[in-house]
UniProtKB/TrEMBL annotation:
<dbReference type="InterPro" id="IPR001279">
    <property type="entry name" value="Metallo-B-lactamas"/>
</dbReference>
<dbReference type="GO" id="GO:0005737">
    <property type="term" value="C:cytoplasm"/>
</dbReference>
<dbReference type="InterPro" id="IPR027074">
    <property type="entry name" value="Integrator_9su"/>
</dbReference>
<comment type="similarity">
    <text>Belongs to the metallo-beta-lactamase superfamily. RNA-metabolizing metallo-beta-lactamase-like family. INTS9 subfamily.</text>
</comment>
<dbReference type="InterPro" id="IPR036866">
    <property type="entry name" value="RibonucZ/Hydroxyglut_hydro"/>
</dbReference>
<dbReference type="Pfam" id="PF16661">
    <property type="entry name" value="Lactamase_B_6"/>
</dbReference>
<keyword id="KW-0539">Nucleus</keyword>
<protein>
    <recommendedName>
        <fullName>Beta-Casp domain-containing protein</fullName>
    </recommendedName>
</protein>
<dbReference type="InterPro" id="IPR022712">
    <property type="entry name" value="Beta_Casp"/>
</dbReference>
<dbReference type="Pfam" id="PF10996">
    <property type="entry name" value="Beta-Casp"/>
</dbReference>
<dbReference type="GO" id="GO:0032039">
    <property type="term" value="C:integrator complex"/>
</dbReference>
<dbReference type="GO" id="GO:0034472">
    <property type="term" value="P:snRNA 3'-end processing"/>
</dbReference>
<feature type="domain" description="Beta-Casp">
    <location>
        <begin position="355"/>
        <end position="476"/>
    </location>
</feature>
<keyword id="KW-0963">Cytoplasm</keyword>
Length: 696
């Protein structure tokens, strides 16, 4: 098995991407887009003027430092530095160089991991099988359609661009270009330029989704009769999953960003991954925080003293989930406070689970207050997306499932939409929105990059109002993201929601799952030392490098039909204890990830009706033992010669036979050769060997 980390991603909005070689098949796990990269583009048309920006430079100037004097790009960055053109989109590095015909399987773990897939499927050589959960497929498709809709609106300002490679890349290679923009466009090593692509179309999305095989929760699907693939909930969001893969050479679990207890999505089903031979840990969420662990060895030693029940219970501690609820309540209180002061709130968070909970909490909070503030959701897919979330109970948490069973909607937004407290509009210029417009208001609107969609116009409208509030999610640099809108007087609340496994829980998780080998990103292992875990083998892997994983199972198992097994004539080996062999003819096939013997039993018979002589023997012949056996059957003249192997060849023993006729017998660890012109002598020697070795 080989694993290549193509990209470690950058948080929830840009998940990691891996290529896996397993049992002769190549698997691509997730194909995201780096949407944070479009912050290099100006969100406004050419004729809109900007006010001067006070955005601080990347590196503080030191008048005494000649190096910084030379790097005069330390000037203050202004909106004029942004690219004023139709946006291109940054894919996983070197996507354009991949031979897509070599990809056999694509696994998509969550909707964000789907956004870059149409770039692959539009290639006529793409022929891989695509698996994702039903919820990921539907939510991901709606997100892609919304992205295309916002992009088309952007084109109305800028006009269509030449389909050739964009000219703006040439303008970003000069010395006066800020280093931050260069880093985004060209990458740290300067080789990311080929990752930029024009956005796909709605037809490309439809074509892509036709190739998808959607799977239900814990449904097993079989690829090519060899790999059994199962999706188990990760708890990150609705439809997000981890993968369990079983094959002829063992089992593998792929653990992506996961949350143990969720208040909207089905929680992390870690018990379903228990016992896998290899675990690939691909949760990079700790890199978005300052979280580290201290006294790793002491902490891990205390884990080894606990039983599985106690360890599992510690993973399900609800402290983290309660903290998330408190964050959501704080966002609501800030919005209510702004509304009370006469200011509006713009929420650009697009993580579906967070939006659903905020809508519910916000509506309940307004219900209990005296404020009459409307909630607007502006998105081309808002109505369809919010309706869909009440039709997928298998991917919701237990509390939401119980609501559906009792006849209530799983999320409260349906009631508030019906009561006209939440209003849905496909676009900011919708006639119904204009007729229902009221300020102050609370608006949920994409895009979180602040370059596309209704958020751009709304932010322009309220940026000078100190009573208004802007709610951002971590993943966007507030400096670069807000650059086109500065100076900005709005209050800004940047939220960091739980998007993966806390480092301190990783050793406990490994102890519960008990894999034989764990692959951990080197950047994660730098923060927590797992080598103290003696019961498992810890291997590190790095971005853009291929890691080889040792083979787990040396001997493959074969399933034989019970009727066939009862007819086998087993022979117990004399040279190997508790080991038996049988001889048969049959067809060996691969079905459902297992070797199976499916044909009937055939035993060869000689012309006299007796069993055929053995064709295969087990073990090696000791020359002295063979010489004694030959003397018992009348071959009395023989001598032994030992020959040393030269130039790496093996040692041999040669038995010279002179009576009743001449011949040689060469014996070694790898086999025995009979050399004589006398067929009767050869037959006698074979009978002697057959009496010494186990044969079938």
């Amino acid at each position: 098995m080989k694993l290549t980390c193509l990209s470690k991603g950058d948080g929830f909005q840009y998940p990691p991407c891996h290529m896996l070689n397993l049992s002769g098949f190549r698997l691509l796990i997730d194909c995201p887009l780096d949407l944070s990269a479009i912050t290099i583009f100006s969100p406004l048309p050419y004729d809109v003027g900007f006010e001067a920006s006070e955005y601080p430079p990347d590196v503080p100037l030191d008048a005494q430092n000649p190096i910084q004097k030379k790097q005069k790009l330390a000037r203050q960055m202004t909106p004029d530095d942004l690219v004023c053109a139709e946006p291109w989109y940054k894919t996983v590095k070197a996507l354009h160089l991949w031979d897509v015909s070599l990809i056999d399987i694509v696994l998509i773990s969550n909707p964000m991991g789907l956004l870059g897939l149409p770039f692959l499927t539009q290639n006529p050589r793409f022929c891989a099988k695509i698996y994702m959960t039903e919820a990921t497929a539907r939510i991901g498709q709606l997100m892609m359609e919304d992205l295309v809709s916002m992009h088309m609106e952007f084109r109305r300002f800028h006009g269509p661009e030449d389909s050739r490679f964009p000219a703006w890349t040439k303008n970003l290679d000069g010395e006066q270009v800020p280093s931050l923009l260069k880093k985004v466009v060209f990458g740290e090593k300067g080789d990311d330029l080929g990752s930029w692509m024009r956005l796909y179309s709605l037809d490309d999305i439809k074509s892509c989704m036709k190739k998808v095989q959607a799977v239900k929760f814990a449904e097993e699907v079989c690829y090519n009769g060899t790999l059994i693939i199962k999706a188990l909930s990760s708890g990150l969001d609705i439809g997000a999953c981890n993968w369990l893969i079983n094959g002829p050479n063992g089992s593998l679990s792929y653990v992506s960003d996961s949350i143990f207890i969720s208040h909207h999505a089905k929680s992390f089903d870690f018990q379903g991954l228990k016992g896998a031979d290899v675990m690939i840990y691909s949760d990079f969420s700790c890199l978005q925080t300052a979280e580290t662990t201290e006294n790793d060895n002491n902490y891990i030693s205390t884990i080894s003293d606990k039983n599985d029940e106690d360890l599992a219970a510690s993973l399900l501690d609800n402290t983290e989930s309660l903290e998330e609820v408190e964050k959501l309540a704080f966002v609501c209180s800030c919005a209510i406070e702004s509304a009370g002061a006469g200011g509006s709130t713009l929420i650009t968070i697009t993580r579906i689970g967070i939006v659903l909970q905020l809508l519910e909490l916000m509506s309940n909070s307004l219900d209990t207050s005296s404020l009459k503030v409307p909630i607007f959701v502006i998105s081309s897919v808002a109505e369809e997306l919010l309706a869909y979330t009440n039709t997928i109970p298998e991917w919701l948490c237990e509390q939401r499932q119980e609501k559906l069973i009792s006849g209530e909607p799983s999320f409260g937004h349906l009631k508030f939409i019906k009561d006209k407290k939440i209003h849905l509009f496909p676009a900011i210029h919708s006639p119904n929105l204009i007729s229902n417009w009221q300020e102050p208001c609370i608006i949920f609107a994409p895009h979180w990059s602040l370059r596309l969609g209704p958020s751009v116009q709304l932010l322009q409208r309220w940026r000078g109002d100190p009573k208004s509030l802007l709610v951002l999610e971590d993943g966007i640099s507030s400096g670069l993201g807000l650059l086109p809108f500065r100076p900005i007087a709005m209050k800004i609340l940047q939220c960091s929601f739980l998007s993966g496994i806390r480092l301190q829980k990783l050793p406990t998780l490994v102890s519960v799952l008990r894999p034989k080998i764990v692959l951990v990103p080197d950047v994660v292992n730098e923060r927590i030392n797992l080598t103290a875990m003696k019961t498992v083998s810890i291997l590190n892997y790095s971005e853009n490098k291929t890691s080889r994983v040792p083979r787990i199972a040396n001997n493959a198992e074969v399933e034989i039909m019970a009727e066939l097994a009862t007819k086998l004539s087993w022979r117990k080996l004399r040279q190997v204890e508790n080991f038996g062999i049988a001889r048969l003819k049959g067809e060996l096939v691969m079905e459902d990830g297992k070797h199976r013997l499916v044909s009937g039993l055939e035993q060869e018979e000689s012309s006299s009706g007796k069993k055929a002589r053995p064709l295969r023997h087990w073990g090696s012949v000791a020359p002295e033992t063979l010489l004694d056996a030959l003397m018992k059957i009348g071959i009395t003249s023989g001598s032994i010669e030992d020959r040393r192997g030269e130039n790496g060849s093996e040692d041999k023993s040669v038995i010279h036979i002179t009576n009743p006729s001449s011949g040689l017998i060469e014996t070694s660890e790898n086999g025995t050769a009979i050399i004589t012109e006398d067929e009767r002598l050869a037959s006698q020697i074979f009978q002697a060997i057959d009496g010494i070795l186990d044969g079938i």
